[in-house]
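for the recovery benchmark. tokens below, seq after
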């Protein structure tokens, strides 16, 4: 089980709140964050 901080995903949390999630869900969250960063990088690179 992976441990994530909900403060990283939800801006309305003022303090750290750690929860345990399955490894598959953690992998999807990491992949989604990576894809979003790459999309933003491509958007600036192509001046779209």
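predicted aa per position
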């Amino acid at each position: 089980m992976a441990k994530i901080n909900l403060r990283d995903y939800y801006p309305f949390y003022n303090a750290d709140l750690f929860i345990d999630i399955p490894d598959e869900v953690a992998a999807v969250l990491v992949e989604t964050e990576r894809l979003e960063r790459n999309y933003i990088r491509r958007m600036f690179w192509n001046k779209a």
